[in-house]
Amino acid sequence: MQTSDFSKDFVEKIARDEPQWMRDRRLEAYSLYESLPMPHTTEDDTWRRTVDMRTQDYWRRTRRHLRGFAVENYHPAAEANGSTSTEVADGTGVLVQVDGNPQHTYLSPELQKKSVYFAALHTALKERGDLIRDYFMTKAVTLETTLKSGNIATHNTFDALHGAFWQGGYVLHVPKGVRIEEPLRVYIKLSKDQHADLSHVLLIAEEDSQIVIIEDNASANQDTGGFHCGAVEIFAGQNANVTYVQVQHWNRQVWNFASQRAVISKDAQLCWVTATFGARLSKLNQAVVLEGNGAHAQLLGLAFTDARQHLDVSTAQEHLSPHTTSDLLYRNVLKDRSQTAWGGNIYVYPDANYTDAYQKNDNLLLSERAHADTLPGLEIEAHEVRCTHGATAGQIDADQVFYLMSRGIPYDLAEKLIVDGFFEPVMERIPMDAVRQEMQEFVSSKLET
Amino acid sequence: MSNALIIKDLHISVQGNEIIKGLDITVKQGEVHALMGPNGSGKSTLAYGLMGHPSYEIDSGEVIFNGVDVLELEPNERAKLGLFLAFQYPTAIPGVSMANFLRSAVSAVRAKETNGSENIELIPMREFRVELREKMAQLDMDEAFARRYLNDGFSGGEKKRAEILQLAMLEPKIAVLDETDSGLDIDAVRIVGESVSSLVGPELGVLIITHYPRLLDYIRPQFVHILLDGRIVESGGYELTQLLEAEGYDPIREKHGIEETGQVEETVQ
Ligand SMILES: Nc1ncnc2c1ncn2[C@@H]1O[C@H](COP(=O)(O)OP(=O)(O)O)[C@@H](O)[C@H]1O
Ligand SMILES: [Mg+2]
Q: B79 and A422: CB-CB below 8 Å?
């Protein structure tokens, strides 16, 4: 097992069996990464609410100890002979990855026959090089995350780091007209201390297709430190229907950085659910680009932080075309000394008349020492639009607690009912019972600790 | 032996102002008492104080229920002993369904031991549903009501009926009804009045707080108390309500030398 250090040598090492174009992209990302400082709150507005000292200090302390890019470890063979993971039931499709290494991939013969492609990204590089070359960090999450209008351009250090050192992740490609109703399941895990996960996710749904993906980001145990620097790129082709659920429950020692972006074509629909329970610190950039006429995105967020967890989420709803709709609802519950920051922006570009955009962030604080920052924003350049936004943050309501207690319900149960009720508007819009149940369990266990 | 709620020389203040200034009432199981008084006289303050709302400070006095010092207990423990308050202004709790809430409440109140914060074993769903359906039918409530969020977007009448449904489900020994008749039209008062009167019996004592005697047409109290400026100034039988209806509070104020507090009286529909 080797220590990484995020050097150029290391890039070369990772890239040695990869196509030349990928090696070039890695090196380009590396030189950008080298030229960029760690994000600074005073210089970069998007980091304003995430204490820079923490991130910088973390980076100084930890980068040399991070392990597990697993250059030595990576055996595509292990994947091929299917080291079957018994805890995972193979339904339509399953992918398991541990510490950056694919462990198990399964896709039902039925879906294989329909030319659905579901594989670890490293495997895909060999098997579907052209497809990956086309989509990988070229259209959604790019080194230069530039809003389409060109009015904001920011380099994200962690995106550059990811571009240079990415390892692991998967691709799902669904051909035109193939509709998969049953969810595919993905388990991305960190198991050993100070290991890193730099997964890259590519979801490509062609015209008229349908997919449902449920992805878990989990730690195998409660006290091993770790690092996640990931990217998710989603493409919903014309009239496609994509549901992507990501449940992040790393343990409280993991530092989590992610850039995620979806591009939605004409009349396509995306339902994107992001549930956050884990990580010591999490910085998530999430954007939907409503590119074609009639594109629709629903963004649902549910987070429960405790102890000293810090969760910073920036969202963007970018409306490029007429008759596009987006609807964002993020609800956070905060315990102990935890903190959340949410900055959301709706951008409506000049052509995007008849846009209907909505965003709302609500925070329920269960402790006087918890802190929530919430900052909705609008930038509208079209004339015929409907945009609504709102944000709230408040302590648990003493009158609600009293009302429930006056009916015999003890404090803890009253609190639980109120928290469950607070999450309900998000939960009721999650289209899968199994997912709702899993989330409910995380919520309950957060309340109990 | 029947249970009794005994209130002795109770003083309650809110935000540093003394509102209840030495009050005595004893309500026994099976008895119906009415507490009447104009707006602002402290009726709700008494109700909240009895149930243990954290904003209502008990300065002195005693509240004994069934031999237990109630003032030492958390609100949920008071409920478990058999004390119930129908709120004048029930609190809305969005996202929590009426059914889910009631099942938790009924399970908590009926649980064998008060094991504090430990998990309460929920009563079986089937059993609960049967009971809920039956009680809702008695109150002439639509079944869809159970799926709605607690008091969220309820009309005035729906809120009051929901309070009575809770009373029926929790089967307390002593219930305080805080203006359960206010804000209701004549029909709603009748429905609420008839349902409460159907619940009254040897197992239940009630303290009906009201400033209009309408509800008392349906549930006739044996004892009537008049609260003015934080004290009970008159106690008597049903005839007191007739006196009030005929002459209002002014003669009583005059008799006891109490100035009108200047609060606007609620308008009657
Ligand atoms: N939560 C509260 N905060 C501040 N003042 C209160 C509160 N509750 C009651 N009061 C005050 O106490 C007095 C009595 O109010 P209340 O008990 O509601 O009277 P009633 O129910 O008889 O109309 C009023 O002057 C009212 O303003
Ligand atoms: Mg009142």
A: no
User: Is the residue at B224 inside a domain?
Assistant: yes
Q: What angle do CA A244, A248, A254 make, to 5 degrees?
A: 145
Q: How far apart are CA B210 and CA A241, in angstroms?
A: 58
Please tell me the distance between residue B43's alpha carbon and the centre of ligand 2 in angstroms.
5
Residue B40, helix vs strand vs coil: coil
Q: How far, in Å, is the centroid of ligand 2 from the Cα of B206?
A: 17
Is residue B178 in a domain? yes
Assess if residue B135 is contained within a domain: no
Beta bridge partners of A289: A263, A318
State pLDDT tens for residues A274-292: 999 999 999 999 999 999 9
- For B41-63, give one letter per residue: b (16+ CB within 10 A) or e: bbbbbbbbbbbbbeebbbeebeb
Which residue has the CA at smallest separation from atom 18 of ligand 1?
A: B44
> Is A354 contained in some domain?
yes
Q: Does any domain span residue A234?
A: yes
Number of domains in chain A: 1
DSSP one-letter code for A45: G
**Residues near ligand 1 with C-beta < 6 Å?**
B 14-15, 19, 37, 39-45, 55
What's the domain count of chain B?
A: 1
CATH code of B31's domain = 3.40.50.300
Weakly modelled stretches of chain A, pLDDT under 70: 1-4, 40-46, 51-56, 59-91, 145-155
pLDDT in tens, B57-98: 999 999 999 899 999 999 999 999 999 999 999 999 999 999
Structural domain harbouring B9:
4-95+172-256
Q: Residue A4 has what pLDDT? A: 55
Q: For residue A444, is it within any domain? A: no
Tens of pLDDT, residue by residue over A76-135, are 334 433 444 434 556 689 999 998 888 889 999 999 999 999 999 999 999 999 999 999
Q: Can you give the residue range of the structural domain that contains A311?
A: 8-399
**DSSP 8-state class, residue A167:** B
The chain B residues in contact with chain A (CB within 8 A) are 51-55, 74-76, 78-80, 85, 87, 90-91, 93-96, 100-101, 104-106, 108-109, 116-117, 120, 149, 166, 170
Nearest-10 crossing angle of helices B186-199, B156-170: 0
CA distance A25 to A33: 12
Which listed ligand is nearest to B20 at the C-alpha? 1
pLDDT band per the 50, 70, 90 thresholds, residue B112: confident
Q: Which of A42-51, A90-99, B5-14, B183-192 has the lowest mean pLDDT?
A: A42-51
pLDDT value of residue A81: 38
Among A153-162, B6-15, B193-202, name the one with the lowest average pLDDT: A153-162
Residue B202 lies in a domain: yes
Q: What is the dihedral of CA A218, A7, A287, A220, to 10 degrees?
A: 0
ipTM of this predicted structure: 0.95
Q: Best mutation site among B17, B18, B19, B212 for ligand 1, i.e. most ligand atoms within 8 A of its Cβ?
A: B19
For ligand 1, atom 5, name the residue with the nearest CA: B14
Average pLDDT of chain B is 90
